[in-house]
Amino acid sequence: MTPLRNLAGLALLAAGAAFAQAPAKPQYGGTLNVGTVYVTRTALSWDGADWNWKFNHDAGQMYEQLFAADLSKAQRNGGKQAFAADAWVPADAMRGELAESWTWTDPLTLSVKLRKGIKFPAKEGVMAERELVADDVVYSYNRQDKSAKKIPTYFDHIDKVEATDKHTVVFRFKSFNAEWDYRWGWGYYSSVVPREVVEAGAGDWRKANGTGPFLLSNFVQGNANTYVKNPVYWDKESIGGQAYQLPFVDSITYRTIKDESSQLTALRTARLDILETIRWTSVDELKKNAPALKWKRFLATSANYLAMRVDQKPFDDIRVRRALNMAVNKQEVVKQFYGGNAELLSFPMSPAFDGYYEPLAAMPPEVKQLFTYDPEGAKKLLAEAGHAKGFSFKVQVCACEPNSMELLQMLAGYLQKVNVRMEIQSMEYAPFLSAMTSKTNAPGYYMSNGFTNPTTSLRKNFMSGQTWNAAQWADPKFDAQMDAIYAERDEPARQAKIKQATREILAAAPYIFMPTPYYYAAWWPWVKNYDGELFAGAARPGPIYARMWVDQELKKKMGF
């Protein structure tokens, strides 16, 4: 740091606090440099038909959806929503984005009216400027539905999607699905991409073009995504009773930084305005060296577990799976590894899922046993299963997750005490993800997996044949339970069914269930209209960034 910045560092806390109290009046211009919650992971695809979850995170700045989170319901605006879960938008916190209104005209027909006047900007070599129309929504849905990479059963509940006039889209259902809004509304695979982009080459980032607040201007694999303001963007934000055209900043850059120490240095020296994922071990030092930073603590957007392939020995035996859970001192992991900054039980239901989550204290004995350290009981179960001398197995893990890499070594130590040995294979994210999606993953697969939402968390992890089902769990009874859950229109009744299904899948122990840590987001005081919100849909921060502005005068006064 320069001497000026050293001097600023001594006075930043007081200065930042004083300026932060100034009346909030939006400013236009400037750039936001962001270390997102996925700061270690580069973009994997620019084509939504690839059905890659990260598409929504990277392309959601430019490709909009029918619905999005209603950020007026955020905690900073007096609401109850933190908007930190990766893909959870409760019904009372959802707004129309491209959709102006929507109505169930009968129990299996949803009519959606699109906003008029929303435009795709002109893109040289791709398309002329034109209005978004209902045919764009129909085209995008059909393309997703016909993709060979589609998640099995994802759109099976939909019979037909059709445009009945220029601004009306009608969804005709075969059967009700409780995730109707998530599946093709605000979810991972709900983006509206124009035909012209597809014909020009949707996988080429240079061809990308949508109705969103920002347009992709540059992409360097493994380094950065750069977005610039869409000059014909349609949406506005009401602040202090006045409507302001969005977005406020001229550009946003996602920085891809794999090394944790480099992330922290970039934040401390203000090369990052925001870093959305900071481990508890770094918080005290950052608060000491950069006291003006603003902070938000949140439960990790993904759960940690070791999936055991139940279609292979020895994990086809429930005694083995339960034994390995009992062999891990999970309370010690919370205390020693996370310094108390973790929840012992928060998967498959996140505590953020109000009305669906049950704490460990409410669980039946067979579930509580899995979270109670009992190495002798584990040895007994292993002996009953014919493994008195233990066994060894291969575990794959992503090198992109510092917590996973470190924690897996700790887990190996616990299992070794009951004569179970792990052969650890560290992989880069793309081949690691491919191993799971192609069902070629090792008998052990240690991963950090997004919570998503109450129904999806159960479906994607435990329904037969699902893409994210790394344990290859296949139980007709559970599948039938999930069918009944999806068909249930009454939310309290659905909540009760989900709680029961959660108890049963926990007791079956297809995973070694690990604690979920808390993380921190930190940002400089010149970043305004923000309080650590992460997602306004499924892993999609675009609407959040569009509403933030940079107090450039404050930034200069603070020495940056």
Overall mean pLDDT: 94
Distance between the termini: 10 Å
Strand content: 15-25%
Largest sheet properties: 8 strands, mixed
Helix content: 25-40%
CATH class of the largest domain: Alpha Beta
- Radius of gyration equals 24 Å
CATH homologous superfamily descriptor of the largest domain: Periplasmic binding protein-like II
Question: What count of helical segments does DSSP give?
Answer: 18
Number of strands: 25
Shape: globular
Give the low-pLDDT segments. 1-23
- Tell me the CATH topology of the largest domain: D-Maltodextrin-Binding Protein, domain 2
What is this entry, summarized?
With 560 residues, the protein is α+β, with helices and mostly antiparallel strands.
Structure notes:
There is one protein chain. This protein is 31% helix and 23% strand. By secondary structure, the chain is α+β, with helices and mostly antiparallel strands. It folds into two domains: 31-278 and 524-558, Periplasmic binding protein-like II (D-Maltodextrin-Binding Protein, domain 2), CATH 3.40.190; 302-517, Dipeptide-binding Protein, domain 3 (Roll). A hairpin with a 3-residue loop joins strand 10 and strand 11 (224-229). Helix 14 runs antiparallel to helix 15 (476-487). The termini are close together. 47% of the residues are buried.
